[in-house]
Every structure is written in structure tokens, then in C-alpha cells.
Amino acid sequence: MPRVVSIYFPQLATERIRRHAGEALPANKPLVVIARRGSKRWISAADATALKLGLRIGMAASKAQAMVADLLMVDAAPAEDAAALERLALWALRQYSPVVAVDGADGLVIDTEGADHLHGGEALLVSGLVNMLRGRGLTARAAVADTWGAAHALARLLAVETTVVPVDNVTKAVIDLPIVALRLPAETVQGLRVLGIDTVGQLSAMPRAPLMLRFGPEPGRRLDQMFGRIAEPIEPIRTPELVEVAKNFAEPIGAPETIAKYVRRLVGQLSNRLAEDGLGARRCDLFIHRVDNTRQHLRAGLAKPVRDPARLSKLLCDRIETIDPGFGIEKLVLVAVFAEPLEERQVASFLIEEEGADITPLVDILGNRGHRLFRVAPVASDVPERSVRRIAATAPDIGEAWAVKWPRPTRLFANPERIEVIALLPDQPPAVFTWRGKRRKVVRADGPERIFGEWWRRPREFQAVRDYFVVEDELGERYWVYRAGDGIDPETGSHLWFIHGVFG
């Protein structure tokens, strides 16, 4: 089922101005953007400081100046705001989904069907998206729902950063929203309010015939779009930089082998276009236009630039079984949404083996099946949980190695788990320990390995120590356990025992 994310930027204009002006605009002074029409001047955007002082969108500029003495006023630049929004749309297109479009002058809309699992689910997707935008200096609110209309309304009318509406719960989520949520013209909203209609639920309960006679078809159409009764396709953003090829069909197709045949042809055309520009694709999107005016899409990501037709075809054709042709497919569109320069590399001799095997084809196949691949790399830290970090599966060798001589478990827990232990203090290993409700008798042990806290990170680690032991139970299973503290001084730790990993 389609799922739509709407992103709202309530302060896009002022944040763009501050970002470009830098220190020229004092951060502690309120900022407003002034629009003009003839001799009239009014506030078209205001930052949070200005809004707290009582200024409002639409207020006359002269009144705003009278209310706030040190007000910063900048002329509106709609073209620059639109360009900034388009750049954000291209960024989201490459990062999140093949279907991204600009939504008015202050937002984006994204079709995330089939993409949320790559980010850990919808809640993590939208929260991560909002956090990334905050890192770019932008205030944003995001909402996920079944329809564009519902997501658009919730992102703008709810004063929370993220909203996730469960599947098939749109009616419950929007029924009490004001009618401005329906994206109707201002005169229509005012006319409905004169009739005493203030909420979406009240409007939905009205008979359609008199509503259409007075206001035309628009209120009914917006209601149907919000509730998902009629489709509202999202036309994805396109720029000249995106390499695109397409195939229209006089007779709709639907058989998997027929789809695969034309996908391979499109991949060949796309590869030729990329070769002309010296580029390789890093991300390709296949759009499937069905005869019922609905659309599906497949995305293929690559670890490095590629224009090998066989490799690109395999990534797309492996997922053809996920396509639902419905009553038939009338058009296929293949777009390279992310491309990078690619230089051809000459092989010195086929008789000489390559220094290292290229694993990127395997990484691409597994990654496009939804697996999140990574490698672990060492970090200069004595504390075990800090001594490792994740890097990309195809990242180059960082040239570092773990400096420890003691054995480390094959599986290190992210958070050590508490265990109950019988042991002699201060230096003896456990004789018996209980973990996850099971009692284990220790038959062999090695240790202790003492690890000190990193006092330069935080004061409470100044005296902290851990004594680690490698222990083996009667079944031959080996564990990595530690005691918090030196076994004598209570200031060095709680003297509680924990299991931190298991050996394979």
C-alpha cells in the first residue's frame, strides 16, 4: 500500500537567508521577510524570535517596525526559496525514495513505499530525516500517512516534529482537523466557515450535490484525495542532470519475462548515455506506469559507479517478481538519479591475478535485497565497546589494527548484561554464574585482564576499572565476563558482574 511522507519547512525563507548571510545578520535579533505588491509591504516569513515577539505572517511591515525596534527586515526572494527547495528535493531523491516532489512553496512530498525498511521503519525514517535537516540548519516537521492530503495536513497542523499514522487510520487522524487542511482556496474556506463548517469531519458529512452547486467539485475532490478514495499521483522531480530513458507500449505488457526483456533494453540505452558523458550510475530508479494511472517503482543502489549493462540488469530483473502489473503496463522509465565520473581501467594481463577480489557486485545484490551491510574497524580505545565502529562494506582499508593481545569474543554485546556470580574476591574468576535464567558451572577460566576507564572523557571514569575473565562452562561454551571494580575499593566500581560477549 502506498505510504506518503510530507515534510514541512515552517521557516525555510528566514533560515536560508541566515545561512547565506552568516555573521552579517546577528543571531539574537528577530528576522522577518518582507513581500511587496505596489505600495503594500507585509511579512511573508518570520523566524522563531520574531514570532515570539508577537509578529505574524501577513502583518503590515510598518506595524511590525513599530512593535519591534531592532527588527531585521529582508526583501522576499521567492525564486531563491524555490531553488533551495528544489535542491532539498534532489537530496531527498538520492537519499530516500525515487518519488520526490516539491509540495507548494514550503514543503516536499515523498512516496516511501518499499523504502522504509532500509531505514529501520517509518518512525526511524522520519525522525532521521528531520534530524538530518536540523543538521543542515533547517527546521522541519514530517508526517507519514496513506495519502498525500493527510500527510500534508498533519505535517502543517500538528505541533510535533514527526507523526506516523498507522495504515488504514487516515480517517481517525484527520476527521477533527480544520478545513484549511484540505488545500482549498481561501475564498472557499471562508465560504464554508460562513455555513458553520469548520472541520474535515463536518464537511465530509455534508451531501455532495448542494456542496458542488455552491463551491464546485474542488471540496469533494480534496476530501476524496485525503481519504484515499481517488488517487493523487506524485510527479517526481526531474532535472537535466538526471539521465533518463523510456519505453512506451502500444499494447500493455504484464508477463515477467516481457518486462525483463524491455528492462534489459532500457539498461543498454542508459549505459550508452552514461558512457557518452563518462559517467557511471550509483543509483537507478525504474518507474512502472500502469494503465489504471497508478505507478510502481524499483530502486537499485550501487556501491561504486557502474555502467555495465549485465550488472545493472541483474539488480533490476532480480526484483521483477515484486512488480504487480495490474491490468497492464503502458510505460517503463529508467532514470540514473545519481551518477559519478567513471574512468575505464585497462587490465594489464588476464594471466595476472588481481591484488584483491572485487566484492562490490555481491554487496550490491545483498544491499538491494534489503540487507544493511557494513564492516567493523578498530578505534583507538581500551574500553571494548568503544574500540570498534561500523564502516561501509566497500570502504578502503583504514590501515589500523586492534592493539590488544588478549583474546576478544566473536560477538561483543552492545550493552553488557548483568549476571549473578559466586566468586572469591578480589582476584578469583567466577566459580558459578547465572545468565538469562540458566545456571552455569565454570570449569576453566583465564584472567583477570584489567581495563581502566578513560578519565579524559568524563570524571566518573577516573578511578573506574574492570577485571575481565574468559570462562568456559561444562558444555564447552566460552564467555567474556567482567567485574566492575577492583574487588577492594568501592570507588572503583559497583563490584557487580556482567557478561560482555561470547566466543564462537
From TrEMBL:
Keywords: DNA damage. CDD domains: PolY_like. Transmembrane segments: none annotated. One of its GO terms (biological process) is DNA repair. Residues 246-331 form the DNA polymerase Y-family little finger domain. It catalyses: DNA(n) + a 2'-deoxyribonucleoside 5'-triphosphate = DNA(n+1) + diphosphate. Its EC number is 2.7.7.7. GO terms for molecular function: damaged DNA binding. It comes from the Bacteria. Its cofactor is Mg(2+). Gene3D superfamilies: 3.30.70.270, 3.40.1170.60. Residues 25-152 form the UmuC domain. Belongs to the DNA polymerase type-Y family. Poorly processive, error-prone DNA polymerase involved in untargeted mutagenesis. Copies undamaged DNA at stalled replication forks, which arise in vivo from mismatched or misaligned primer ends. These misaligned primers can be extended by PolIV. Exhibits no 3'-5' exonuclease (proofreading) activity. May be involved in translesional synthesis, in conjunction with the beta clamp from PolIII. This is DNA-directed DNA polymerase. It comes from Shinella granuli. The lineage of its organism: Bacteria, Pseudomonadati, Pseudomonadota, Alphaproteobacteria, Hyphomicrobiales.
